[in-house]
Amino acid sequence: MQDHHHQPSGRLIVVEGTDGSGKSTAIELLGKWLAAQGYPVYHTAWNSSPLIKPFMRQAKKKRWLGPAAFSLLHASDFHDRLNRLILPRLQAGFIVLADRWVYTAWVRDHVRGLDLEWVKALYEDVPQPDLAIYFSTPPDIAVARLKHATRELKYYESGQDISGLHDPWSSFLWFQEQMRQSYLALTEQGFLQVFDATLPIREQQKILRSWLKPILEGVPLMPQFLGSSQDQANRESN
């Protein structure tokens, strides 16, 4: 990835991981901690563009999407959020907390059989995170967490579009393992920093905050944002 935009004054923190890894809970807690100190915080999530998400939801429901269409729609969603919502805040000094970044596309689309270089080319003009964390969780633990939350798996979420398995949970377990292997490859290549997501939440937060502190050096506090950890304009689209 190359950053052709002018250098932002904010920071970009990314969390990645399979479904059920606990990354969303962790980044939400981090946002509250940052906001309590007076940092302006902006949350953004995968597949949340108010322009693209409605069509994406309908297309998934109708099972219209092959791997390439799936990939291109997610790229459109990403770039809409990047240009309208994320980059302006980075340039204004916000701490942007991203629940998934381009690595989600690299992993999912590659597992779906697309050429990885083709997928990367869709995101070649995207800024690199100041910190990108992979929440490592064994697939069986992730499945147990989702079942405990009484989640109903969706067709694409479970990977049934490529697994050929009729049982959603069996397909999900297979799909998660394929993605886990791809994520681990990215950690070995230095794109992501591995984090043990099986640790208790309190211990997780202690470690994550220690990772963040040196990255936050030089970012000015903005007391007017004290206690406001979420940007409602983005959350309203979820």
UniProtKB/TrEMBL annotation:
Domain Thymidylate kinase-like residues, every copy: 15-204
Cross-referenced InterPro entries: P-loop_NTPase, Thymidylate_kin-like_dom, Thymidylate_kinase
GO CC terms, sorted: cytoplasm
Keyword entries, A-Z: ATP-binding, Kinase, Nucleotide biosynthesis, Nucleotide-binding, Transferase
GO molecular function, one term: dTMP kinase activity
Pfam families in UniProt: Thymidylate_kin
UniProt-annotated binding residues for ATP: G17, T18, D19, G20, S21, G22, K23, S24
Top-level taxon in the UniProt lineage: Bacteria
GO terms of biological process kind: dTDP biosynthetic process; dTTP biosynthetic process; dUDP biosynthetic process
Catalytic activity: dTMP + ATP = dTDP + ADP
EC number, as in UniProt: 2.7.4.9
PANTHER family given in the database record: THYMIDYLATE KINASE (PTHR10344)
Purpose of the protein: Phosphorylation of dTMP to form dTDP in both de novo and salvage pathways of dTTP synthesis.
UniProt record similarity statement: Belongs to the thymidylate kinase family.
Protein name: Thymidylate kinase
Encoding gene per record: tmk
